[in-house]
Design brief:
141 residues, alpha+beta, 2 domains, 5-stranded mixed beta sheet, 4 helices
């Protein structure tokens, strides 16, 4: 995660430097494009934290953030995600069933079934470890 944060910080610094240069040169049309790149770069890196309170996933600079309290969770399991097939793409995703996905790659993900019937899926390198930690929290309730 430290590498991801460093990469995101470097990306943000490069983008800000680009904005300053564009303003100095006077090409205002490209400023919007560079700002969009900055926002996209900030949403590329997410961290996942499991605690006694539940699970939290947040983008590099704290927004957006998805929090699910332990009281809202019915069960947690590991699932396999294919971004295009399952979520019609990558990123922060929503569907008509009320499900939320934080889909940054193919592979294993944390699947959280909530008591209201909706589901949240979060791709993570250590999905098995996150699910095990979350299930320990749920078992202590």
């Amino acid at each position: 995660m430290a590498g991801s944060r460093a990469l995101a910080t470097a990306f943000a610094a490069l983008t800000i430097a680009s904005i300053v240069l564009l303003i100095y040169v006077g090409n205002w049309a490209l400023v919007g494009l560079v700002l969009a790149m900055l926002v996209a770069g900030c949403l590329t890196f997410w961290s996942v934290k499991v605690s006694d309170a539940g699970i939290e996933a947040r983008a590099t600079y704290g927004w957006p953030r998805v929090q699910i309290s332990a009281d809202e969770i019915d069960s947690a399991s590991v699932t396999d995600v294919h971004p295009m097939r399952d979520w019609a793409g990558w990123g922060l995703r929503f569907n008509t069933k009320g499900d939320t996905g934080i889909v940054l790659r193919s592979g294993t993900a944390v699947s959280i079934e909530k008591k209201d019937g909706s589901r949240t899926v979060i791709t993570a390198r250590d999905s098995e470890q996150a699910v095990a930690a979350l299930n320990r929290v749920l078992d202590r309730r």
